[in-house]
Write a structure and sequence with these properties.
The complex is a heterodimer of chains A (about 150) and B (about 130). Chain A has about 150 residues and is of the alpha+beta class. Helices cover about 45% and strands about 10% of the residues of chain A. Classes of the chains: A alpha+beta (about 150), B mainly alpha (about 130).
Chain lengths: ~150, ~130
């Protein structure tokens, strides 16, 4: 039996103009993960260098992720892959990928992706607020004083 | 020696024997699960197994002692049997519950260990590229 090479890095092509996406990115960066995560805005020129096929996968429509082992996932499968890389969420990734859950996962992901800008507006989430959250968390490491 | 004392003695002997039997069964058969959970690290599996059994003994002996007292004094042989049956029934149900809890714990530990070993996500790739 051929043994599969383990995944050593996951590149996530996210929407840097979407508040919800940036918030999720900040959240993921602070979760313990099995594999290192690299975040690249899908409209960043570097993204094209990493994944030349990216424009044909419509990353503005649904999230796209690429593993260093060569697999590229899109939409609900990409979300499942993201959860699977997080230590505390791998069990949930397994649950969401079950045949009885998968149609719901697909529908939910399409719904959120399609309305992510409206959702960001509704929740008052901006890319700037998420960036602030990331910076404060990284700089303080839980030891900052609140003045 | 009156009937109540006989009742207490038989109850304690039976409960303790039953607890020891269940604990030994768990200790013997749970080891394999734990060795698998800890990726073949036998000393660690043995240590966790021992700690689990100690917890099991403490909880069950505690419950057996707590449940010892009878409401009204036992006067004859029929009442000894009836009281013993009620007491032993409760102890057996509690032991069974604890036993299933332990099995569930072993199963959960093993499932988490299997999750740690996975190399690919349970998702369908849209594209396969050469390795990056």
């Amino acid at each position: 039996m051929k043994t599969l090479k383990p995944m050593n890095q996951l590149t996530i092509f996210y929407d840097q103009k979407c508040g919800v996406c940036c918030q999720v990115k900040a959240w993921m960066q602070h979760q313990p993960a099995y594999v290192p995560l690299r975040f690249l805005a899908f409209d960043d020129p570097t993204a094209l260098e990493v994944l030349p096929e990216l424009p044909s996968l419509d990353p503005a429509g649904q999230i796209v992720v690429a593993a260093d082992t060569g697999e590229v996932y899109r939409g609900a499968d990409a979300w499942i892959t993201c959860l699977w890389t997080l230590r505390n969420w791998r069990g949930w990734a397994k649950r969401f990928s079950r045949p009885e859950w998968k149609p719901l996962t697909h529908r939910l992901c399409s719904l959120i992706s399609g309305n992510r800008l409206r959702l960001s507006e509704l929740l008052k989430l901006t890319p700037e607020s998420a960036a602030k959250l990331t910076t404060s968390r990284t700089e303080c490491q839980g030891t900052c004083r609140l003045d | 020696m009156n009937a109540t004392i006989i009742n207490y003695t038989i109850y304690l002997l039976l409960s303790i024997a039953l607890t020891i039997w269940v604990a030994r069964t768990l200790h013997r058969n749970g080891r394999l699960f734990l060795v698998d959970c800890f990726h073949g690290n036998e000393p660690l599996a043995d240590s966790v197994n021992h700690l689990l059994v100690v917890g099991f003994y403490l909880l069950n002996f505690g419950f057996v002692c707590y449940h010892l007292k009878v409401g009204s004094p036992v006067t004859n042989a029929v009442e000894v049997f009836e009281m013993l049956s009620t007491k032993m029934g409760v102890v057996t149900v509690v032991l069974g519950g604890m036993h299933f809890f332990n099995i569930w714990l072993f199963h959960r530990l093993r499932r988490n260990a299997l999750l740690d070993q996975e190399v690919r996500p349970p998702a369908q790739p849209i594209l396969m590229r050469p390795e990056m």
